[in-house]
Write a structure and sequence with these properties.
Strand order of the largest sheet: 1-9-6-2-5-3-4
Structural class: alpha/beta
CATH topology of the largest domain: Glycerol-3-phosphate (1)-acyltransferase
CATH superfamily of the largest domain: Glycerol-3-phosphate (1)-acyltransferase
Low-confidence stretches: none
Shape: globular
Number of helices: 9
Distance between the termini: 40 Å
Number of strands: 9
Radius of gyration: 20 Å
């Protein structure tokens, strides 16, 4: 009888909490920050929806959580992959759930994301903002953890034979943001996303027609229609590396040589971490 009562109490609390949330949303009694981040909506709806995927489908294992500096701003720099950028969502959830302080990772996204009406609103609500130095620097000065994928679409849209081979890191804008604010850089390696939608071809004419960077063909999409959008259940490993202190180069934040060299150092650190994690996970679906 006691167990039944406990279950009933749990459901009562959930229903009451859900009704309270709905009332606040309908009456506008909730807060968003200057970037549009809605902490309550993220914690109450987005993250709970992602947790079954995180724990049951991808079985994510995280290491190096102690390297996250939740007490001050830091730039989390990760490899990007997966055809559909689910890795950003899993990374944000890992930062929030695995760190004892439960910080929120503020992801920087490509301008394409913020040109799409529904996706743009969701990205803003979840704490994302445009991948530009002014926004990144403002977040870092506010003491936020900021996530960036310097490979951009070159990483997320690469073919399966190129998996876990880091693409070029662009002009190193993320390094400039860290140097201007003195924020540490945390190299982060993600293994598992490459296998969720293995891209075997890119229909470029269709991509140009739709205005997208690529149009993927995978073993399941578009052959199986909507079912082809279900990600494969690969095993994920996420490793947060040791922070790279940028304080010594703050006075050289506008020196291209310093920026490029530090970007290369971050890139090589992530590449080495990927190789190490792949040795730990010889079978992507085990």
């Amino acid at each position: 009888m006691g167990e039944v009562a406990d279950v009933d109490d749990t459901w009562d609390r959930r229903v009451a909490g859900g009704l309270a949330l709905l009332r606040r949303r309908l009456t506008g009694q909730y807060e968003v920050d200057e970037f549009g981040f809605d902490r309550e909506l993220t914690d109450a709806l987005l993250f709970p929806a992602l947790r079954p995927l995180y724990h049951k489908w991808f079985r994510v294992e995280v290491s190096g959580v102690d390297n996250l500096t939740a007490a001050g701003g830091a730039l989390v720099v990760a490899n990007h992959s997966g055809t559909v950028p689910i890795d950003g969502l899993m990374l944000a959830l890992a930062v929030h759930d695995e760190h004892p302080a439960h910080p929120h990772l503020r992801l920087l996204g490509a301008d394409l994301v913020f040109r799409m009406p529904i996706l743009s609103e969701l990205a803003r609500k979840a704490g994302g903002t445009l991948a530009c130095n002014p926004d990144a620097e403002r977040l870092l000065r506010n003491g936020e953890l900021v996530g960036v994928f310097p490979e951009g679409f070159k990483g997320v849209g690469k073919r399966y034979p190129q998996r876990y081979q880091l693409q070029r890191f662009g002009r190193g804008g993320f390094v400039s943001a860290a140097l201007h604010t003195g924020a540490p850089i945390i190299p982060t390696a993600i293994v598992g996303a490459e296998e969720i939608y293995p891209m075997i071809a890119d229909l470029k004419p269709l991509a140009r027609l739709l205005g997208t960077p690529y149009f993927p063909v995978t073993p399941t999409f578009p052959w199986f229609g909507p079912l082809g959008m279900v990600p494969l259940p690969s095993k994920w490993l996420i490793e947060f590396g040791e922070p790279i202190d940028t304080a010594q180069w703050v006075d050289q934040a506008d020196d291209p040589a310093v920026v490029f060299n530090l970007a290369d150092q971050v890139r090589e650190t992530i590449q080495l971490a990927l190789r190490r994690l792949l040795e730990r996970r010889p079978d992507p679906f085990a």
